[in-house]
Amino acid sequence: MRTQIASLFQKSVEWPTFIAIGGCYAVWLSATWFQFPGWWLAAILATGFFASLQHEVLHGHPTRSRWINEALVFPALAPLYPFRRFRDMHLKHHNNPKLTDPYDDPESLYVAEHDWEKANPLTRAVLRICRPLLGRMIVGPWAGFWVFLRHDIAQIRAGNRKIARQWLPHFPAVALVMAWLIAVDVGLLFWGLCIVWPAAALMSVRTYIEHRAAEAPEHRSAIIEDRGFFALLFLNNNLHALHHEQPALPWYRLPALYRNDPVLWQRRNGGYVLSGYGAVFRRHLLRGREPIVHPLMRKK
């Protein structure tokens, strides 16, 4: 009986993800506890990596139990977005026929023409700043969080109980992290500005390039042929077209799937392929990639 239980556990647990979660906590806790030279850089990378792990968890990994999976990423190392709220928005984002639509895709980086026309000068200025990658990395994390927070507060005040319930577990999750930081004498302002912000900036490199406006839904998601630092940080989500085709596939199986027939996948996503994130930085660090207003979909 014991052997059968152990065998079932081995089959139902995706060990690479489980180990990655444990390693992430080990790096973050060691960095903040020992505060060795350059510890803040390790904390930044662990925080960004944790966001990638949250993305993996919301897709049903590393176990078959939703509650176990959520418990594994309960502490809010990446504190800007409540996990359950992020989960619901991201799963809605995976409605591929509506991908990038500024009204139907909660992760769209485009604006509808009607909303652009009625936007105030400050909003337009922020959107223009965020067109190149550098602006997206510096201003984008806080601008996006402000829009998200304002929307959710309005929804909760209007009586949206579902969103309110999604926020409730986030407060103890953030409090747990803050309590640890206070105990190890890491200032909360330093944490927010020097760890959370740079980590969010790193993650915005992925979101900046992963989608484009295109007539065919399968042509809207990118393939970035990166096998190095960013591929690991993003848990192979640089192969984003493959992830949208097979969202239940764990991160560590995506590279082999792509290597099996790269020509097929490149043809399927309409040739939206870049050689690596170095190419993204060279092309778009100071130059916008896509128009602010969605060029194809609903205008109002």
Oligomerization category of the chains in this entry: single chain
Query: Whole-Å distance between the termini?
Result: 61 Å
Main pleated-sheet profile = 2 strands, parallel
Lateral arrangement of strands in the main beta sheet:
1-2
List keywords for this structure.
single chain, 300 residues, mainly alpha, two-stranded parallel sheet
Structure characterization notes:
This protein is mainly alpha-helical. It has one domain. Helix content is 61%, strand content 1%. It is built from 17 helices and 2 strands. It has helices spanning 2-12, 15-34, 39-58, 66-72, 83-93, 113-118, 121-129, 133-138, 140-157, 161-167, 170-183, 188-209, 229-233, 240-245, 254-260, 262-268, 277-284; strands spanning 223-224, 273-274. The protein has a two-stranded parallel ribbon. It is globular. The termini are far apart. The model is unreliable at 1-9 (pLDDT under 50). InterPro entries: FA_desaturase_dom. Residues 32-264 form the Fatty acid desaturase domain. One of its GO terms (biological process) is lipid metabolic process. Keywords: Membrane, Transmembrane, Transmembrane helix. This is Fatty acid desaturase domain-containing protein.
